[in-house]
Amino acid sequence: MSYLALNAVFLGVAALAAAVALWRRPASRRLYAASGLALVVVLMLTAVFDNIMIGVGLVAYDPALISGLFVGIAPVEDFGYPVAAALLLPAVWSLLGGDIRQGAAREGSPHPARPAEGQDE
């Protein structure tokens, strides 16, 4: 299996999870905007550090399994995993109910785990 095909599997699962999260919790769009910004930073770090690791011989790729497209000396396939993470991690967070601030605002409580002052548990 080529690295590109392996990336397609991970990216497909991540995209599906992100689509489900956006469909079930449209408010998670803010989460994806923040994740997009984080993705830009992670892609830049990936470009720098993958090129260093490949350049010093720490990592090598079978030329028969890569697409032949490169960013510096790093194959583009190296960038699929950060993209998958930027899609999958916020999706899982959203689907598990991770944004507690929204729940607190809806319920009128300063913190969902604690009742507001003067309220019984």
UniProtKB/TrEMBL annotation:
Key words, A-Z: Carotenoid biosynthesis, Isomerase, Membrane, Transmembrane, Transmembrane helix
Q: Where is the Lycopene cyclase domain?
A: 3-92
- Gene Ontology terms: cellular component: membrane
Keyword check for Translocase: no
By its UniProt entry, which InterPro entries does this protein fall under? Answer: Lycopene_cyclase_dom (IPR017825)
What is the predominant subcellular site recorded for this chain? membrane
Cell compartments where the protein resides: Membrane
Tell me what topology the record assigns in the membrane. Multi-pass membrane protein
What is the name attached to this protein's record? Answer: Lycopene cyclase domain-containing protein
User: What are the GO BP annotations of this UniProt entry?
Assistant: carotenoid biosynthetic process
What pathway is this protein said to act in by its record? Answer: Carotenoid biosynthesis
- Transmembrane portions of the chain: 6-24, 36-59, 79-96
Gene Ontology MF terms in the entry = intramolecular lyase activity; lycopene beta cyclase activity
